Amino acid sequence: MNNFSKLKDLVMSLEDDFSKFYDKNNAAAGTRVRKGMQELKTMAQAFRTEVQNTKNAGAATAAPAAKKAAPAKKAAPAAKAAPAKKAAAKK
Q1: 50: part of which helix (H) or strand (E)?
Q2: Can you tell me whether residue 22 is helix, strand or coil?
Q3: Do residues 10 and 40 make contact, with C-beta atoms less than 8 angstroms apart?
Q4: Could you say which of 6, 72, 82, 84 is the most buried, measured as most Cβ atoms within 10 Å of its Cβ?
Q5: Contact at 8 Å (CB) between 46 and 37?
Q6: What backbone phi and psi angles, to 5 degrees, belong to 7?
Q7: Per-domain residue ranges for the chain?
Q8: Cβ(26)–Cβ(20) under 8 Å?
Q9: Number of helices followed by number of strands (H, E) in the chain
Q10: Tens-of-pLDDT digits for all 91 residues of the chain?
Q11: SS3 at position 9
Q12: What pLDDT is attached to residue 84?
């Protein structure tokens, strides 16, 4: 949960800058917001990678339980042939 705390702290630290940028039109605050959002993006990607690696490591160490085989796919129905054209009737 330490990562979650870091994430919350970063978001909360940006609150004042968001307010200054949107409410007071402070351009420097906008720069800080963009920088903070980039840090948030980088942090989020690192957390995603960590979660994925932890999940995969757990799956690799778990005993392979009786896995169900995927059901076989049914064959697609055959396409219907176009009806044959009738010969023109003689008049």
Answers
A1: helix 27-61
A2: helix
A3: yes
A4: 6
A5: no
A6: -65, -45
A7: 2-58
A8: yes
A9: 3, 0
A10: 788 999 999 999 999 999 999 999 999 999 999 999 999 999 999 999 999 999 999 887 765 555 566 666 666 666 566 666 665 555 5
A11: helix
A12: 62
* Res 59: pLDDT: 82
Q: What is the reported pLDDT for 58?
A: 87
What are 20-31's pLDDT values in tens digits? 999 999 999 999
Q: 27-61 and 15-24 helices cross at what angle (nearest 10)?
A: 140
Please choose, from the candidates 82, 11, 64, the residue with its C-alpha nearest in 3D space to the C-alpha of residue 3: 11
- The token duo for 33 is 């917001």
User: Nearest to residue 37, comparing CAs of 11, 3, 72, 73?
Assistant: 11
What is the C-alpha separation between 41 and 22, in angstroms, rounded?
21
Cα angle, residue 42 at apex, residues 38 and 48 outer, rounded to 5°: 140
Nearest to 37 by CA among 17, 60, 64: 17
